[in-house]
Design a protein that fits this description.
This protein has helices at residues 39-49, 55-65, 67-95, 97-104, 137-150, 155-159, 162-174, 178-191, 196-203, 206-212, 215-228, 230-242, 251-257, 265-273, and strands at 107-108, 130-131. By secondary structure, the chain is mainly α. The radius of gyration is 19 Å and the shape is globular.
Length: 287
């Protein structure tokens, strides 16, 4: 007991593997006793909150790259979770309740689109049959588009920026679906001067296709982007032909899991994204 106050109970890790908490964008501000946990447990809870289905693999890969890389990754999970829950979702709850419900409700998987790569010990029991809120493309990329707009990984900076929050309000007010919301956020990031290649890489992150297996979602999102933000698709295709846009993840990660060859990046990115970007790019049978 400190200053007459009872210590904050340290959470049971298993309690964060439930469908209610896994993939629900929990950050350090939402987890009691977070500061008292070991670094590896902090990482795991943040990764689970972000719906990362392979946290043990990711932890091992980033440990090899060193302390700064691991610190960056933990901060990225922390910020994307906090921005999703405390900026995007909280704003949607207040301004567009129907959209909020869509953003925060797990989605049944199509039976012909089985779940992809995951560690059974790091996912909830229903992972093979339901897509968690943070496993969706909007869950993964929405906060990342705001981080690109803010140019800093700080949730409070976003909350305190009238310009960014005006963009969030406008996107949430206009969007009827989570996919439309992501398109409006991506377009807002582009109009704020963010790199269109990075915007598209986030919105159409191919790692999510391999982890989730939802080809229909990618093709549907392509159609929405062509309606709301066609300039982003055109910008990506122009950039792809001028110079290959380098992937954010480590070469080791792509080489091991996604056939990325650092000695032949253009051919590898054609495998990943198609050339140019089009609905046929998003197929697990491509290659």
């Amino acid at each position: 007991m400190v200053n007459g106050e009872a210590p904050v109970p340290i959470p049971s890790p298993e309690s964060y593997l439930t469908p209610q908490k896994w993939g629900s964008a929990l950050s350090s501000r939402d987890i009691p006793g977070f500061a008292d946990l070991t670094e590896s447990m902090q990482f795991k809870l943040l990764a689970w909150g972000a719906a990362c289905p392979v946290p043990n693999r990711v932890w091992s890969e980033y440990q090899v790259m060193g302390g700064e890389a691991l610190e960056w990754l933990m901060n990225r999970y922390e910020t994307t979770n906090a921005v999703t829950r405390h900026v995007i979702w909280s704003t949607a709850a207040a301004r567009n309740p129907e959209l909020y419900l869509q953003l925060t409700t797990p989605i049944p998987r199509f039976t012909d689109e089985p779940v992809g790569d995951f560690e059974p010990e790091s996912a909830p029991f229903n992972h093979a049959t339901y897509i968690s809120p943070m496993s969706t493309l909007t869950g993964y990329a929405g906060a990342r588009e705001l981080i690109l707009t803010a140019r800093i990984d700080q949730v409070d900076t976003i909350l305190q920026s009238p310009k960014i929050m005006k963009m969030v309000y406008g996107a949430i007010d206009k969007a009827k679906t989570p996919v439309e919301l992501l398109a409006y956020l991506a377009l807002g990031a582009f109009e704020a001067g963010a790199n269109p290649g990075a915007i598209i890489e986030h919105a159409f992150e191919l790692a999510k296709l391999y982890e989730e297996g939802y080809e229909r979602a990618y093709r549907k999102q392509y159609g929405v982007f062509m309606t709301i933000a066609p300039i982003l698709i055109r910008a990506w295709n122009i950039m792809h032909h001028l110079t290959p846009f380098p992937p954010r993840r480590s070469e080791l990660h792509y080489q091991k899991h996604y056939k990325y060859d650092p000695n032949n990046p253009d051919e590898s990115l054609s495998y990943l994204y198609g050339s140019p970007l089009n609905p046929q790019s998003f197929s697990l049978t491509t290659g």
